[in-house]
Amino acid sequence: MVSISLCMIVKDEEQTLGRCLESVKNLVDEIIIVDTGSNDKTKETASQYTDKIHDFVWRDDFAAARNFSFQFASKEYSMWLDADDILLEQDQVLLKDLKENLNPSYNTVTMDYIVSLGANGEPYQKVRRNRMVKTSKTYRWKSPVHEYLEVSGPVYHSDINITHLGKPGRENRNLRIYEKRLNEGKVFSERDLLYYANELRCHKKYEKAIEIYEKFLDNPNGAKEDKITACGRLADCYYRREEYDKESEAAFRSFIYAKPRADFCCRIGFKFLREDKIPEAIFWYKLATELEWEKDCLGTYNVACWTWLPHLQLCSCYYKAGDYRKSYEHNEIALSHRPNDERMISNKKLLERKLVLTYGQPQ
Questions:
Q1: Residues 211, 181: one domain?
Q2: Are 217 and 227 in contact (CB under 8 A)?
Q3: Quick one: which of 313, 350, 362, 353 has its CA closest to 334?
Q4: Residues paired with residue 149 on neighbouring β-strands, in sequence order
Q5: Is pLDDT at 138 greater than 70 in this prediction?
Q6: How many structural domains compose the chain?
Q7: What does the DSSP 8-state code read for residue 12?
Q8: Rounded to the nearest 10 degrees, how much is the dihedral formed by the CA atoms of 69, 74, 77, 81?
Q9: Boundary (domain end) residue, out of 102, 135, 164
Q10: pTM of the entire structure?
Q11: Phi-psi region of 211 (alpha: psi -120 to 50; beta: other; left: phi over 0)
């Protein structure tokens, strides 16, 4: 069995910290809390779970704060969470099993980070992150905003999910830090450019975001997954500006860096569907259903595009083409992923009537 130090940085988290720590308190061997300047009862909440509470003077640098927290870790592995993260019950079971059975030859353990949830609480978007690292390797956090761990050596890709529930009131924080750094004349790394563009996109500053994404993509440096992410976000900016041809160009651009992925195929398929080019739309949505996500990929996993969405869209395409059997078939597959989805239930009833009228049988 391996031992785990949980290392967290927090500020004004009295409403969320207890929920987070309750979900992991029996799974880790020590809890280290670094407070970056709370004005509420965060420390009092933390003290109910640990006496290892330290202060860090905040200087708009998340990596510095995380590195400070990791220096107090004394167990075999160091793990990180944010205060608005939790482990759901099934993931607690998986973490317990991991702790009991992990081969200590692994330097790092990845877990899926569920960064957003759908309307019914189902996972909407995931990204795989390095979540636990061997303490003796003294890996360092990099980048002041959207920080990441720089790791090397053997990696274990676990099935554990960390669920991010979020907290209101942080919408402008990261953009403010980036713009402050720009005003100070700081030179942005390739990764900084990408995440600065992401913040601009989130704030609907699409024209400026497009400029920064293009600057990032034109640079020969940068990680493959970051390039693919930039293509997707660039496409989204063009979509928001109703520049649909440029949206598709950005989606196709992602194929430079890796084989087609379901989210880009769905985006291209949707353009053809809007244009009522049904055979072309079917081609791209069908391709999306045939692809498999690679577990060791550290890119963003858009759950809908890799599961139910292309089947729902194929249901619509085949309906328009008059092939009600295939339309029904794909709606059934979509329903298997979302059995309570009212659109799909309505489709099922409509298609059953169509099948009786057309073929004399319900399916």
A1: yes
A2: yes
A3: 313
A4: 141
A5: yes
A6: 3
A7: S
A8: -30
A9: 164
A10: 0.85
A11: alpha
